[in-house]
Amino acid sequence: DGKKFAWSRDKGKPFKFTIGHGQVIRGWDEGIMKMSVGQRAKLKVTADYGYGARGAGFVIPPNADLVFDVEFLRIVPTGESIKSDFLSKLPFLLAYIAVVLWILKYVRSDEQEL
């Protein structure tokens, strides 16, 4: 319906999560991995990569396709030790790096953007 449900920029505090650990919806894990630090993008997330048939409480209805306006601010090391042989496995390295981004807004994809 075009309503904001989470907006970290308005709160002045970036949202932090670790990629690949199931802390966020699949659409975020996969979408953020394709972004570069400093990039702003709209992540279009279908229901099967978002909240699916369950929705999210009273905020996101079941089977909702979503659009998130995000900005990838920086990468923050998680503090876990990284072995030299692990560095050769770059895709797995991403799973051990936390990302910080602004959640600017979301709109259901079947609604007009603001």
Automatic annotation (TrEMBL):
Catalytic activity: [protein]-peptidylproline (omega=180) = [protein]-peptidylproline (omega=0)
EC numbers, comma separated: 5.2.1.8
Chain ranges of the PPIase FKBP-type domain: 1-76
Statement: the UniProt record of this protein carries the keyword Iron: no
UniProt GO cellular component terms: cytoplasm
Superkingdom classification of source: Eukaryota
Transmembrane segments: none
GO MF, one annotated term: peptidyl-prolyl cis-trans isomerase activity
InterPro entries tied to this protein: FKBP-type_PPIase (IPR050689), PPIase_dom_sf (IPR046357), PPIase_FKBP_dom (IPR001179)
Keywords: Isomerase, Rotamase
Keyword Ribosomal protein on entry: no
Identification of the protein by name: peptidylprolyl isomerase
